[in-house]
Amino acid sequence: MACVCHTMNTISLTLLEAVISSLTLKNAVAGWIKLYANGNEGKAKFEANSEERQCEAAAPFLNFALKSIAMAEKIVAAFHALGIPLENVDHVPAFTVEEQAAAVGHLPGVLTKNLVLKDKKEGIFLICAAAHQTVEVKSLAKKMQLVSNKVNLRFATEDVLHNVLQVKQGSVSPLAVLNDTENQVRLVLDAALLTADKINCHPLQNDKTVSITPADLLKFVRHYAHEPLIVDFSVSVAQATSPRAAAAPKAPAKEKNTIVKPDKLEKDTKSKEGMVWSKKENFPDWYTDVITKSQMIDYYDVSGCYVLRPWSYEIWERIQAYLDGKFKEIGVKNCYFPMFVTSEKLNREKDHLEGFAPEVAWVTKSGDTDL
């Protein structure tokens, strides 16, 4: 099927529509095989299956090809409507910045590094930086000068990419804002992109790269109601944060002999023990209240580690026992695996997975002590 998948990339929208508009999907698949799988090794293997199985196997590729071509045509139409020149280069699929650099690194301008991050309170962010910049997720909130003190940016799931930006992992670019019709995403652009002659990015397909000027990119994203936040990723957090005037030292406040009434003290103690947040008002904090005040989990000195208390541990034991039985039924055996992975191996993964930030997996502190 590898050769069949490869062939799909070459089919034009018109031809696909003609094939798919045949009497049945079976006819479509049969016609497609004769036209495009001739002479390939995969043809014999493919035709060895029943007609129903052939339809089943080929349908996702036909569907994916149609969607990809439709998305590319959507970008072309948007460029045309806004009077933006279309400079497009076809190449082999490039899932990472490194692969894109190998394919189109010769083009004048800069490539983009694109991250989709999410915070429970602040929402979704599309971060677009020049490929050579280092984007530190931990310090990003400070660079963006977000109001909230407790910002925990995490990489968005595939569902967010699919449902909000309508793009697959490896094909993200600032142009994806045209699909965010409900303005759920905040766009963050690297200042370095705006000083480049050209910005080279995927048109939501990773087998193509378009070149666009900074002025035209701003025209594009603003047309789709996304005013970008400009961040200079080349400066430190201290430089990026606007300086505040030092407050004049205050005179020490006079001590007051405050008498706390017993009933007030009892009320304050009860409020700390009981639920503070409502589920409707603030779901994340409500959930934290539930699992901590019901004595399900406890926090630990080591950063990123939690203690499962008896109630939650019993739930885990039941899940473990159920899954263990199911795994052993299909022949899965026990094996060793590392509880801690070295920073070298974690760093290696960022070259394999787009958007993977090794620092989020590091255990760095025990209490106030660095490990």
UniProtKB/TrEMBL annotation:
Record's keyword terms, sorted: Signal
Signal keyword on record: yes
**Sorted alphabetically, which Pfam families does this protein's record hold?**
tRNA_edit (PF04073)
Q: What is this protein's name?
A: YbaK/aminoacyl-tRNA synthetase-associated domain-containing protein
What is the similarity comment for this entry? Belongs to the PRORSD1 family.
Molecular functions (GO terms) = aminoacyl-tRNA deacylase activity
* Signal sequence, renumbered to the chain: 1-30
Q: Which SUPFAM superfamilies match?
A: Class II aaRS and biotin synthetases, YbaK/ProRS associated domain
Protein origin, superkingdom: Eukaryota
**Residues of the YbaK/aminoacyl-tRNA synthetase-associated domain:** 91-220
